[in-house]
Specification:
It is globular and about 50 Å long. With 338 residues, the chain is α/β, with parallel strands linked by helices. The protein has one domain: TIM Barrel. The chain is built from twelve helices and ten strands. Helix content is 43%, strand content 13%.
């Protein structure tokens, strides 16, 4: 009887030990399909691209509490716009202080159960000088892949924002074929976001080449058409200086529907879930048109089963007024209707 009791007790102890090990297993061990990931990150917003946080956390506009604001505001995901190249040394190694800040940001976002997209956002540097960009981009993903290999599946990677100029369709496709194995060496089943060249242009989806065997890929496009409306008065885009341009006619709405239908046709043909990674209208436009455009794009994306991420939380195109600590109501309600 005693031996039987001891055996039973031992079995219970072994079971408890096994449960303890399973509980300690990183969440990354749970594989999530690209399609389910898109469903989980349905409504997102771009954050932290141009915040002083990265150079001096004491001067940050964005505070970690804003992740709760975002979650409470009805969002499911954040797209972290990372300008990592300026935080690399001559050996292309990332600054430990910058990495520490990134860890804190990721941890704070995950604590709010937000999907976190780590978006390498050095598109200007890569478009202007692809040869100088490539070793830095490869080094970035080696380091980030290793650092976050045990992160929860709520962390996903985006290879590069808006390939452009010298980074042509053909060259970008060749980079994808080289960059993905770098990521897969440490993150074999983590979902990765990849978009076409020419600024993630919808018209270049047909040129995008993704490896058929890799089913943990999410295709992305950005949508700012028509540019004369969405970028009116933007100093960085001299082709759209005129202001006073409105949006919302039936013909304009139909153009958006047709554009999104074209993307959807590609997504179905290639069996890839979609992320509308950026959309919105610059602050120089009238608010009624901006809200109408934003709402239309968000609803059209949702109707097709895409995730979306609005550009952006702070800075310009803003959805949240940090100074007044309040949502810009027309934009927020366009994104997350009451």
């Amino acid at each position: 009887m005693l031996k039987a009791l001891q055996a039973h007790t031992g079995a219970l102890a072994a079971c408890a030990a096994l449960l303890s090990v399973l509980a300690a297993t990183p969440a990354a061990a749970r594989e999530i399909s690209a399609g389910d990931q898109v469903k989980a990150m349905a409504r997102g917003i771009n954050v932290l691209g141009y915040d002083p946080l990265w150079n001096d956390p004491a001067k940050a506009r964005f505070q970690m509490r804003h992740f709760k604001t975002i979650k409470d505001g009805g969002f499911d995901a954040v797209r972290l716009n990372l300008h990592a190249f300026s935080h690399m040394g001559a050996d292309n190694q990332l600054d430990p202080a910058w990495l520490k800040t990134l860890d804190q940001v990721v941890e704070a976002a995950l604590a709010q159960k937000l999907t976190v997209i780590l978006d390498e956002h050095d598109f200007n540097a890569c478009g202007e000088d692809p040869a100088a960009c490539k070793p830095r981009l490869v080094s970035f993903w080696k380091q980030i892949g290793e650092r976050y290999k045990d992160a929860p599946d709520g962390v996903i990677f985006e290879l590069l924002n808006e390939p452009n100029k010298g980074l042509t369709d053909a060259l970008w496709n060749s980079w994808i074929a080289e960059l993905l194995p770098v990521v897969r060496a440490t993150n074999p089943t983590r979902n990765v976001v990849v978009g076409p060249a020419l600024w993630n242009n919808i018209g270049h989806l047909d040129q995008l080449e993704l490896p058929r065997s890799d089913r943990h890929l999410i295709a992305t496009v950005h949508y700012y058409l028509p540019m004369e409306f969405t970028h009116q008065g933007a100093s960085w885009n001299p082709a759209t200086p005129k202001t006073g341009v409105t949006w919302g006619t039936q013909a304009e709405r139909q153009r958006m529907k047709a554009d999104f239908d074209g993307v959807q046709a590609w997504a179905r043909a290639h069996d890839r879930p979609m992320l509308l990674g950026e959309f919105g209208a610059y602050d120089k436009g009238d608010m009624a048109s901006r809200a109408a455009y934003t709402a239309a794009a968000a609803r059209e994306a949702k109707a097709r089963g895409w995730a979306w991420a609005y550009w952006q939380f702070d800075s310009d195109f803003i959805a949240y007024d940090i100074k007044n600590d309040a949502w810009v109501t027309p934009i927020h309600e366009a994104l997350v209707p009451r």
